[in-house]
Every structure is written in C-alpha cells, then in structure tokens.
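Why do we care about 3D structure at all? Because function follows from shape, and shape follows, mostly, from sequence. That is the central idea of this module. The next example makes it concrete: a single protein chain, its amino acid sequence, and then its structure expressed as tokens.
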Amino acid sequence: MKFLRSSVYFRLLTQVRPYLGRVALALFCMVLASACNVAPPWLLKNVVDDVLIEKDMAFLNALSLGIVVLFLLKGLAGYGHQYLMNWIGQRVVMDIRLKLYEHMQSLSFRYFHASRVGELLSRVTNDVNVLQSLVTTVLVDLVIQSVSFVAILGFLFYLNWRLTLVTFAVLPLAGWVIDLAARKLRRVGHEIQEQLARLSAIAEEALSSIRIVRIFATEEEELGRFSEQNRANFRSLMRGTQVHAALSGTVEFILILALALILWMGGRDVIAGRLSPGELIAFLGYLVLLVQPIRVVSRVVSQVQQGLAAADRIFDVMGKTTEVVPPADPVVLDEIRGEITFDGVWFAYEGQRWVLRDVNLHITPGETVALVGTTGAGKSTLSDLIPRLYDPQKGTISIDGHDVKSLDLHTLRRRIGVVPQESLLLKGSLAFNIAYGCPEATEDDIRRALAEAGLGDFVASLPEGIEAEVGERGVTLSGGQRQRVAIARALVRNPRILIMDEATSSLDAAVEQQIQEAMQRASRGRTSLIIAHRLSTIRQADRILVIEGGTVVEEGSHDELLALNGRYNRLYSLQFGLDDDPSLR
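And the structure:
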C-alpha cells in the first residue's frame, strides 16, 4: 500500500512538471503570506511591553504603519498564490481529464464490454473533480500551514524554550490520532468514490434506456435501484464525515489541554518575574495560531485521502492497456483494392470460449459476400475483426496482402464503411451525422449518400433539410430512418470495403427493396460484406457463407446452396414458411 501511495504521489507530481515556473512563484507568494500570518503576535508583544508599559509614542507610530504595510503585503501575496495555484490546479486537472478521455478512446472493445458506461463517466467527472481539490486547495493549505507551523515553532522557542518543550510533549499524541484517521479515511475515500460511480452508472443506464423503462412500466423498480444505491452512497459519505468530525474534535481538545497547561505555567513565570506580560501574551497568541495549522492539516488529511483514492481510480484506468496495439512503423495504404483474407483465424472474447474457429476465407476485390447463420454463430465478430475492433488470438487477417496489424489504424478504418447492427446516431443535424468521421464530405456528397440510402425525398420534405436535428440518439427519427442514415454515413466516404451488419432489419418490405437496389449500386466496384438474418436481402450476393459454431459450414451462391439441400436450404425454407419441421425453429 505504501508503494502504491508513493506511486500515486509521483504520478501526480509529474503532471505539475510543465508548470514549475508558476509553481515556484506561487510558493514564494505562499511563503510571504505565511510570514505575514505569524507576525501579529510578535507585534502584540511589542505593543504590550514597549508601548503600553514603556509609553513609547514613536514606536507606536512605526508599529501602526508597519501593521498596514504587513497586511497589504499579505493581501497581495494571498491574491498571487490563490490565482496561481488555482490556475495550475485547473490546468493540471484539464490535462489529466484530457489524457484520461484520450486513453479511454484507445482502449479495446473488450474493456468497454466489461465496464459500465456510468462508472467510466464517473472517472472523467466525479473523480477528476475530487482530484482538482487535491491539486489546488489542499496543496495550498499544506504549504501555507507547514510554513506557518515552522515559523510559529521558531518564535515559540525564541520566546521561551521551556514552555515550548512542554507544549510539544503533547503534540505526538495529536500526530498519532491524525495518522490513525488518515488510514481510515483512505479506505472510506475509495468507498465514497466507488459508491458515487455506481450511482452514476444506475442513473445513466435508466435515462439512456428511458423508452424501455416506460414501455415495461419499470419506473418504480428503477427508482428503487437508484434509491438503494443513493442510500449506500449516503452511508459511505456519513462514515467519512464521522471520522473527519471525530478527528477534528479530538485534535482540538488535545491542543486546548496544551494551551491550558501553558497558561497556568506561563502565568506562574510572569508572577515570579521570569517572563514579561508581553512575552506571555505573544506565546499564547502563537499557541492559538498553532492550532490553525494543526486543525487545517487534520482537515486536509481527509481531503488528501479522498483525492488519492480518486487518483488511484483514475490511474487504474490509465494503466489499462489495449489489445489492439497500433504498429510502431505502420504501413499507410493510400488506396486499397479490397482483397480480404482470413488465414486460420481463431477468436474468443474470454478464455478459450471460441466464437470463431479456424476460419479460412478469401474475398476478391469487388466481390459481394453474405454471411448467414443463427444468432451467436460469429457473423458480426468476423466482420469486427476486419477494421481491428478486436485482434484474433490465432491466425491473421490481411487486406491487399498486408496483415491488418501492420496497417495504420486511422487510415484502415477510414477506408472501410460500416453499417452497424445498432444504428447509433449522435445529437446534431443530419449533415453532421452523415459526415461524421469524413470532414472532407461536401454537401453534394451528403445529398448523394442520402439519395442512395433512400432518404432523399424524406430530407426534401423537412423545412431544415440536411440541417434538421435528429435529437439524442436519433430520437426524432423512426427506426428505419435511423438505419438509412447509418447507411448514408457509410456510403458518404466512398469506401473500398463496405460492411453491412443487419442493415435492413428495421425496414419495411417496400423500403427494403429500395435499399437493396441502392446497395447493389453502391456495392459495384467495392468489396462488400453483408450480414443478414433476412435471406431475401442477400440473394444477389456473389457468394453466401453459412456460419455455424464459428466455422464456415456451407459456401456458394443462393441457387447453389439451395441445390445442396443443406443448412442454408433449411434456413430459407423456415424463413419463407416452406418447411414446418419444428426442429428447425
């Protein structure tokens, strides 16, 4: 745990390195402000001994002017360190948030499948916000109070070393209490951040699936889940509050005991003539000031532990590696012909539960190949391996004779058009969604893609045209319209390889026929991979592959496969009501 903690400290410090100049200036301002903070009791000593007792008017005038100058310097130094440290803190947090988000974008799909989106969002928002307090307020408090503590300690020893030693005989007890609380607060800090992340995840899941929640009338169940997690979050927060409150009260009580003891002993010394009244007042004033650094440190301990817990969670994500590693010296293909080869490919999402088993496949440039089979056969997984959303555990996948692992990822994916099974749209206009990932697309390109996808007439009927808003996740469009926008998004980049995963599953028969004709036109001169459950959409494919259990069990044209009277024939007969054998259902 100590090694982990020091590692977190070091990683946080490396984030501050680019701003060391501002840090040095801020530290100077903090030291100056701290020096001004500890001067008043010394001035009070002089007021009592030299002004009130000795009746020195000249010294009174100088002292009054000195107090004005002192607090002017304190105000300027305070402004300087607050502005500089907040600038540094905000900038460091901005850098960390950007690096965290960038790293999340690079992680493999496998990581996202094993994580809840709400918890990941909590790392970017809640955890980073907690870290912001650690970098700004907490660091300022630690520096100022540490400098103040050392300065006060020096004044105390100068005034009366005997009373100072008595005072500091009590402080180890306060230090032990703070250390004990720090360990507890670190654990509680982790728990608080975890509970908050789970709360965010539950809310994100319910709100993003609000249509399903309403349809199935599960509002009460979702409210119950959120309420239960909300209570768990409240309990963890109160455990942290309980420890922090007990720490503050205990430390303050210990310090008051020390103050009472010093008052009794110092009063005896003044009566005996061993200490002047001004020195006793100054000594007690410094003791009162000493309470502030210790109280602040006891409060900061809580914030530090919660901040380090958040840092642990942030650096845990940033420490995750992606299985899809970009090549060190990537091959950039300016143009591709669209030749695809699978050579002995095996793939599993976890362990050795193979989804694809020894797949060998060669697709020639411009060929249209359809993949059919039951749900879970491995059709979508096979298509996901082409743009390297995953890497196979065994075997190689090549495009135009180049292993995809050697190709530049960005260029590779820009050359491939994908219509996913779930047509997810982003909040924005139709034009924004269609040109997404293709910034060079012109308005003519967008309109051409819309026409090919069968949306030309629909868009023409909209007052805003291609600038019409589609809403969050495309909520203003029907399922079929969302799917056709996804098709247009794939076509606008004029890809050499086109992958369509159930691209017509949400379309009615009339529109499906239009899309089939449009896709036939779009497939000309392109390598096309079509995944379909509705076999009517793939009759015109050059080749149809029947996949079962992660392997290709049949291969041929529509007519050839029907003539085989095998698995494809049975699927076709079942789908079109030509076979009532219940074993096929």
